Amino acid sequence: MNNKLQAKDLINLGLFTVLYFVLGCCVAIPIGFVPIFLPILGALWTLITGIPFMLFLTRVKKFGMVTLMAILSGLLMGLTGMGYWGVPLGLIFGLLGDLILKFGNYKSAKRSLIGYAVFSLWMVGTYIPMYFMVEDSRASFAASFGKEYADKVMAVMPMWSIVLVIAGIFICAIIGGMIGKALLKKHFVKAGIV
Where are the transmembrane segments (predicted)? Predict the structure, then answer.
């Protein structure tokens, strides 16, 4: 088997990254306007996007595809105004997810769930400004949505809650992956993922 990414792999990567991102935005855009939901936005994203990601895994047989998807997702999130911290975290957690899948020879259903959960941690990058650049984030939110919105967002995101954000993303990714795996069982069998 040729281990280099080919045009077909890159087409699959592009299509599934767009599907993954658009579906995630369908969750993020409506609830992102309600400040109290911002801390759970990443968890909800990973819960919903487990389906397209699991379908993507039926096409992934080469190392690097998951890493590239994480980097592209971080880049797309940056283009929507959520900061570019998702790009370096996409590199880190995408690479770790890729390694987990590779160690399962891209055939392990258990590793596909863990790989997806680790991959999903790229999303923590969107929260970094809110936790570590508080005043800049407050000013950015105030400029876009008004001071009242900015104050409410920062009030529901105390520093200690970053642990809950990370745990929520990881746990909901496992659940989302299980849902995706169950819905796509036929595709998993056909792809030889057991």
Answer: 12-31, 37-56, 63-79, 85-101, 113-134, 154-180
Domain layout of the chain by residue ranges: 7-188
Q: Are 84 and 75 in contact (CB under 8 A)?
A: yes
Residue 49: name the closest of 122, 107, 148, 131 by CA. 122
* pLDDT tens profile 91-131: 999 999 999 999 998 889 899 999 999 999 999 999 999 99
- Tell me the pTM: 0.91
The answer for residues whose C-beta is within 8 angstroms of residue 73's C-beta and 6 or more apart is: 17, 20, 21, 86, 90, 122, 123
